[in-house]
Amino acid sequence: MASDPLVREGLTSRYRQRTADPRSVAACLAVWIAATVVIALVPDTDAFIVHGQLPVAVFTGLVAVALALVWLVARRPTGSRGLAASRWLGQWAGWWIAAGVAILLWDVATAKTGWGRPPYVPPPGQLLTEAWADKELLGSSIGHSAELLALGLVIGGAAGLATGLWMGWSRRAGYWINPIVKYIGPVPTIAWIPIVFIAFPDTFWAAVFLVSLTVWFPMTVLTNAGIRAVPKEYFDVCQTLGASSRFLIFKVSLPAALPNIFTGVFMALPTAFVTLTIAETLGVNSGLGWYINWKKGWSAYPAMYAAIAVMVVFCGTLLTLELAIRNHVLAWQKDLTRW
Amino acid sequence: MVIGTPQDRGAEQQRGAIDVLDVSQAFLNHGEPLPVLDHVSLSVRPGSFVSLVGLSGSGKSTLLRLVAGLDRPLAGRVYVDGRPIAGPDPSRGLVFQDPTLLPWLTVAKNVGLGPQVQGHEADPVWRRRVDEMIELVGLEGFRDALPSELSGGMAQRASLARALVTRPEILLLDEPLGKLDALTRSALQGEIGRLWQRQGFTALMVTHDVEEALLLSDRVVIFSPRPAQIIADVEVDLPRPRTQDDSRFRELRRQILDLLS
Fold first, then answer.
1. Tens-digit pLDDT profile for residues A280-322
2. CB-side exposure of A301: number of CA atoms within 13 Å?
3. What CATH number should be reported for the domain whose range is B18-101+168-260?
4. Which residues of B are less than 8 Å from A255 in CB distance?
């Protein structure tokens, strides 16, 4: 079939790879070069003290150079590397143009015209330089948040998985645990703060407990729902093949419930971020949530904005990672919705 | 295609006798008792092929689940080779109307589920058996395919292979071809007949298709509507291979259809 030139041509045109469009690549380069030139050469406003124009200009210049290099590789999309580069440009050129325009407008609105009244709305360079100047505290805050979140996710996730499995398998466990899950689960974790911070000897473990509790609820409910939704015939077939209950739990129920379990993690992450931030703000004197409030207290707006930006990247990356793992693990699922 | 009678195949197969003695089964349906089987007795000789025919909901599948050991009867007993059934056992394979392959495992892993469950996963003898079984049902090109990539007929072939890989003495088939199109169904009927002849198991098949029952079985057992009782037990005295245009075949079909209506 593929030897028929008509068919082959039709197939190529119908399933054409979305490769780089030279016009959008040119627009992309133009925007980033324009941003570099404007930020570096147009004089700043005299109304305010402006920091960090040079690092931003260097950064935008480097982005322009990097994009140009990718384009050089992608220009002849014959080899696998060229094709990959070309597809990447074809996919993301739109976002690179938008990002270049945004950074240019932002700098003009702040550093060049003073319209945004720095430091309330600081120019991009000021975020960078002030975050860099405070890199030790900011870095340790990121580390603290990551540690707290990781512990909460692991403990709460494992507990939720175990509770959900247990409820799904033992009628007695369901009898005792179900009402507890129904009444404790929906309570906003924050409401426990007064009790928890007194009950725990130190605030760090109190916060870990709160994050775990937040994660535990959706994980329990969705694991349990997943286990109950496993087609009964899977057990029938495996039992006639001689499967033990251990096999039925870990090799049949658990994989069959994985789609639900991943939804549980997906739902647990954002609420875990909420609990984390609030716990850090109210009790634990470290972490990104605390850093943001601390900087606000000192009116150090650029550092505060930088920390918020770090938070966006932090949460977004984790969620993207969760979805990527899910798409990989659930590749067997028919009609899997890929986010 | 030549399918011999159990006698032709000699005395190699002596195991796999099923004896259902005075069995009754009922369920609760919205709080009301729903009798499904009413004092049913049935004996199946080792190595024979018996079909259970009846209207939908007449308890045929319930009987199959009792023989599989997945349920226990409320009254009466089920024996295999003279021993009462204690629970599910690999010596009694089961094939459902839906292939019920585990969707996260490849065809080879699904077929190898029995050996895996029994801890023979890495045993070369068993691996060869799995390979042979996959070839026997014509899926050698799809060893690493996922169930979602298979057609209905291919999935049902994989399900047959999975049930047969542990060489069961009894194969229980619950409307195995009920959801397939006419062509695939016809092909798989031949396949089931060949596998039965080759492996020498006792086959107990629930079906709605009288022709399918007549093509494959030594006996066709006809169930009354719920609560099911056996209303007729028809010996299929036709030589194999069988064809639908045979006059005796048509006579038997007429006879069974009359009994069913």
1. 888 778 889 899 988 888 888 888 999 999 999 999 999 999 9
2. 9
3. 3.40.50.300
4. 102, 104
